[in-house]
Amino acid sequence: MSRRLSLIGLCLSIAAPVMAEPVDILITDATIVTMDAERRVIEKGALAIKGRDIVAIGGADLAASYEADHVIDAGGDIVMPGMINLHNHISMVAFRGLGEYEVENLLFDVMFPLEKELLNRNLIHVSARQSAIELAMGGVTTFADMYYHEDEVARATKEVGLRGVLGETVIGFPVVDSEKPYGGLAYAEKFIQDFKDDDLITPAIAPHAPYTVDKEHLLAARAISDKYEVPMLMHMVEFPDEYEMVLERHPDMANARSEIAYLDEIGFLSPRLLAKHVIHLDDADMDLLKERGVGVAHNPKANSKAASGISPAWEMMKKGVDIGLGTDGPMSSNQMDILTVMHYVASVARLRLHDARPYTPLELVEMVTIGGARALDKQDDIGSLEAGKRADLIIIDRDAPNMQPGYDVYAAIAFGAYPGNVLTTIVNGQRVMEDRKILTIDVESHDAEWKAVKDRVKAFAETLEGGIRNER
Length: 472
Ligand SMILES: [Zn+2]
What we know:
Keywords: Hydrolase, Signal. InterPro entries: Amidohydro-rel, Metal-dep_hydrolase_composite, Metal_Hydrolase, MTA/SAH_deaminase. By secondary structure, the chain is of the alpha/beta class. The chain folds into two domains: about 60 residues, Roll (Urease, subunit C, domain 1), CATH 2.30.40; about 300 residues, TIM Barrel, CATH 3.20.20. The protein contains 16 helices and 17 strands. Strands 1, 2, 3, 4, 5, 14, 15, 16 and 17 form a nine-stranded mixed sheet that branches. Strands 6-7-8-9 form a four-stranded parallel sheet. Strands 10-11-12-13 form a four-stranded parallel sheet. The N and C termini lie far apart (about 80 Å). It binds zinc ion. The site of zinc ion has 6 residues, from loops.
């Protein structure tokens, strides 16, 4: 001991004192996929996190300038921006796997009866927490959500430590959090006031769709979005027969060229709008979305599973529409990870266009990182790894067999990676998952609450025709 002390004393006396800057987390020996403007990939890179921010990013020599409470030696693994899932209804995980056997109309025959009988604050909260765990374990750090009692989704999201853009639903009939139609407007306003300054939650308003919300209430939702400067989330041109469905609630639309042209004419389209699905539209509609700065969430797994169609997402991207990827709720697409959506996006576009060229791996990785951030208008805070931005990042196991040989890191991520390859998830500077262990909540007590939710749902689903399994 004395020898060591004297050696340190000697070093101090002869070397110029280099003060290492204290930080909270230091990641070393990483393959850093920055997604910055130059799309730099830094081999053997280092990244320092202090509080909620990335304070430095660079090569191996950077590490010596920082002293951290917590050092993560990435051993060559990939460090990339946390992924963004632009469309979800995470509390519906309680109903995942129901109505999968030749149900004629999933929405009306299974989903609405389940929601009517079972939804309450507890189910929404516990299920949201369950989904947030799944999202974190799949490398999603930010997600957009639309549901009821969205304040419960917000609380669960904060418990797990994810970033959420959460929209309270506005719909033209009575639902769990409102006895009268369109009660979501007042609910949303209170929710927005309560969470407006939250570090992780961006409260939003979510008119469900033009076929469930009339003109007056669409415009009322837009007014709230403008007043509080919060996002507006809505399903749009999702179904092949949607025009007829919308016409019933909007007779004025008969004079408009299309649903999107009509929404523009009434003054609904806005740069704060994030439109979900956006499948059945033409070239002029796409130009209109670009002109109005509308963001788009492309959810091809849910859309193909429901036979709704394949969005011309590729064409929208080429026109410069801000477009990212989503999954839709766990009852529609079942899986909530965004990693495996990238492969699917390219595959269905290539089938649709009979052309194997659309989407480079880099373009796909852009869609789940900086592209998704742009669609949410959060590109100044998240979506790339740069000093001064929030520390939202994930570590992907580069040694996993399915990630080998990994000559091109973008191809390995976009076409090869599975959610289970995500080792560590950090959001707003907080370690949410490390080495595949959730650190932010007591998982055991969560599991007990989740089991009670599942038992209750199962008991009712067994009484519902087509709920668990058809006899056919
Ligand atoms: Zn949806």
